[in-house]
Amino acid sequence: xxxVSASETASKSDIVITMVPDSQHVEAAITGPAGxxxxxxxxxxxxxxxxxxxxxxxKMAGLLEGKGVNFIDAPVTGGVGGAEAGxxxxxxxxxxxxxxxxxxxxxxxxxxxxxxxPVGSGHTTKIAxxxxxxxxxxxxxxxxxxxxxxxxxxxxxxDAVKNGAGRSWALETLGPKILAGDFEPGxxxxxxxxxxxxxxxxxDDTGTSLPTSTLIAQLYRSIQxxxxxxxxxxxxxxxxxxxxxxxxxxRL
Length: 252
Fold this sequence. Notes:
252 residues; mainly alpha; 2 domains; 3-stranded parallel β-sheet
C-alpha cells in the first residue's frame, strides 16, 4: 500500500530507509513536518543510505535515540550497474547490534557490506571513497586528451590501457562513454560537486589537505560557468574542462 507521509511509513515499519540527495533532505525526512520521528516505533531502526555530512548523521542518531530508535548510516557505492544487479557496496556506521539487525535487509540491497565503526563512519567512508573515484576520473580525462592531442588512435589507446596498471571502474565504465561523447548521467555532476563540498568540509574539520580534490572542484565549476545546465550531465563531463583547456576533444 502507498503511505502518504514519512511518519505514516515509519509507524508501519521495523526498518525505515532514507536515501535522498543531501543533508537537508535527510533532516527534512526525519525531523520535518510529518517526518519519520513523528511516527517511528520504539525499538525500530532508521537506515540512512544517503551521502551526507557525517555530523548530520550523528545529529539524527541522537534525536532518534531519544525516541528509543536506533540509527545507522549506510551509504552505497557501485554505480547504476551495481544498483541494478544488487551488488552495491554498502558502508555502514553504527553499533554492532543495530548493524546485525539491519544486515538481512542490507544483504538484499548490496553484495559487499562493511561495518566501518560507530555512527558517522559510513558517511565518512563514502566521502573518502568519492575522492578516490573522482581523482581517478581526472587522471583518465587528462590521459585521454593527451593521447588524442598526440595523434594516437583512441580506440587502440583505450584497448591497450584498459587492462594495465591504470585499470579502474572509471576507465572501464566511463571511458567508453567519454570516447563516444555520451554524457548522460548515471551520477550527475551536481551530485559530485556536493560530495566534493562534503569532503572539503570534512577536511577543514580534521585539518586535512586535499589539493587534488580542490582543483577538481574548480574544474567542475568551470564547466558549470559555461552552462548551468551542465551540472545535470554525468560526472564524466569532467573531461570537458580538460578538453576546453587543450582545445581538442577525446573522441573516437
